[in-house]
Fold:
Amino acid sequence: SLLNLPGRLELDVALFYAGASGSADELRDRRVAAYQRLDARLGWRPSERFNLSLSIENILDDRHLEIVPSAFEYSSEVRRNVHLRGTFSF
Structure:
């Protein structure tokens, strides 16, 4: 969801779900539990050239596993992330 709010504010929200869907499900084969992920971004554009935003990824959990290691890959655990970003274009 992408929303333009009054006061030159922007609100972006994304919800992700990964879970079991069948007997050959890759998540189950790799022993990864189903998970939901919620990300959000609040941006402020005081001028056409400057943008300031605060983003939070993985709001629902402080971390979740996406890949269990096998002989050829490393485990992938996604942690909660917070980003403060300012951009100036010229």
